[in-house]
Here is the input.
Amino acid sequence: MLKQYSFEETAVQTFDDKTSLAMRTEDMQVFYGSNHAMFDANLAFPKNQITALIGASGSGKSTYLRSLNRMNDGIATVTGKIWYHGVNINEPGVNIYEIRRHIGMVFQRPNPFAKSIRENIVYALRANGVKKKAELEERIEQSLKGAALWDEVKDSLDKSALSLSGGQQQRLCIARSIAMAPDVLLLDEPCSALDPISTVKVEETLLELQKKYSIIIVTHNMQQASRISSQCAFFHLGHIMEYAPTGTMFSNPQIPVTQDYIAGSFG
Amino acid sequence: MNAKRTDFIATVVIDLIVASVVGILFFLLAYILTAGLPHVSWSFLTGATDAFSGAGGIGVQLFNSFYLLVLTMLISVPISLGAGIYLAEYAKDNWRTSLIRSAIEVLSSLPSVVVGLFGFLLFVVKFKIGFSVISGSIALTFFNLPLLTRNIEESLSAVSRSQREAGLSLGLSKWKTELGIILPVALPGIVTGIVLSAGRVFGEAAALIYTAGQSAPVTNFADWNPMDPASPLNPFRPAETLAVHIWKVNTEGLASNAAALSAAASAVLIIAVLLFNLGARLLGNYLYRRVTASK
Here is the structure.
């Protein structure tokens, strides 16, 4: 039997300087049919930092993340505001394809296309109008270097992406996202299907990438959150209970539910 | 009974079933080939048929079968591709979609002779196209559409959802994702469907008797202008196919060696189907390797 916690007692930090933010949500609600899955989500994400979203399975952290680049369109109903560069991108008239080029996403299971490594990176670029061969080549090299994969695959760019190991595939997916030159990178438990060594490589990659991108990562691994994130938000049953700098969150959680979760005496 | 024993018995039963299926297939193949091949000669493969008795070669019919197949595929593959993509990707799960699905199922269970008579009344008589390759291919398209649509829909749906999400998350439109990412992965399954429906087209007789006709006028194989009445490529000429020819030789043929003729034609038909299957698979594999960079 799960312990009952009050959803009224929350400790969510806010940021006064809105220009330092990559994006934020205001009173976001998510419904799957009649099932209310996300309640009044108010979170703000500082630029060039890694923000971790933690919580138990079913706490709504993936649902929240997928709403940020409108990947829940057609799956769930998302209300409220999602602010990105002064624009509410949760409006019906917004060009979602344009949005997704700015807010990239990496998924739980590595999902490279069944194409060559090169094609994996340039396919979407070409579809978006980047045609010059020199520029494509440069983007391939830059993005693969950014994802710390270049040295491993530079001699086999025409090999199938499916011949790579799981960890390499996931880094290819990261490279594919950053090749689009996004602004924000969303990662949905990117290491949950990887072994510890691949996980370390992905984490090192992310720490490097935060210099250029604002990163929001869902993880069920608290060690991972404490290793790489600067900010940390704790989700519980569709509610955001606590949001604080990661150090504070892990050393000095403010409310009982977070204390119990971090101490491992949850439920 | 313990698990090991149950499993052993089940394995034996399944093996026997598979063996009997394969056995029947090989028996049929061997029978048709041994009965027919001795009568096959170069002049039989390329020669013209005597219009009155049905005796003589099957050159024109062989060409007609392939030409009809190609034309049918040119019409039916794009249509069923569109329908399959619609059903797999765009159709919402509501009563309208299930109505479309049941309509497709009904279409696939229509007897071929009914489709043939329908084609005869509509294209041959009403539209005054006459017995022709084009009337035949449109009638055969009716057979092909349900099979192919279903097959394409299933091949597309079998591709993992994560591939679609990957495409969408990169800002690709749904259509672009479908065409550039999902379709190449689904290609082997689609090729299998095309091969299966091609076999049906090759073997179909009833629907073609009324639409493509039962005569194979002598064509001039040096004339490749599709507008000329004598050209083999003219889609408006009557075109008896190999399967129709076999039927005709056996029912109306006056040739003294009708049995040998039909046996030989059957052997050729089977070999043509096998060759087509093999060719389609090789082409499919080649395309798949090209688009997916696998080996």
